[in-house]
Amino acid sequence: MARIHVASWQETYRGLMSDEMLDDPEFVSTRERFWTVGLTDERFAHHRIAVAEYEGELIGIAESAPPTDADATWSQQLNVLYVLASAHGSGAGAGLLDAVISQGEAAALWVADPNPRAQAFYRKHGFVPDGLFKEEYGIKEIRMTRRDVDA
Hints:
Blueprint: H1 2-13, H2 19-22, H3 27-40, E1 48-54, E2 57-65, E3 76-83, H4 92-100, E4 107-112, H5 116-124, E5 128-136, E6 139-146
Parallel strand pairs: 3-4
Antiparallel strand pairs: 1-2, 2-3, 4-6, 5-6
Helix pairs in contact: 1-3
């Protein structure tokens, strides 16, 4: 999972994030600790985590959790959804999204801007920009939200 996380960041954020961060020899071990804690620590027992694989190899990861944004009116926040570039268009991303956020469930996420491919993917799945933005890891991010379709 850590290797997919790092490889996806390198594919997605090259040119948006510093090469120094993306190529840090400790990057994989940092992400290994992130996933080990996320999968084993009781504090994260309510998080939803999924992986996608193809022919026995991991190609994607996803994680959602209860929202942390103070103004949240949704039940889940997508924190991680990465699919290797070689698997883009395979349906893995949609499968991962559905695995960690139920179809039609009110949710939110933060996505890099610019990242037109990811933003188009989220729009296709009912998310729209709500006008808020922040900067993290030196990257501008916009928040996208989706209302509960039953509301």
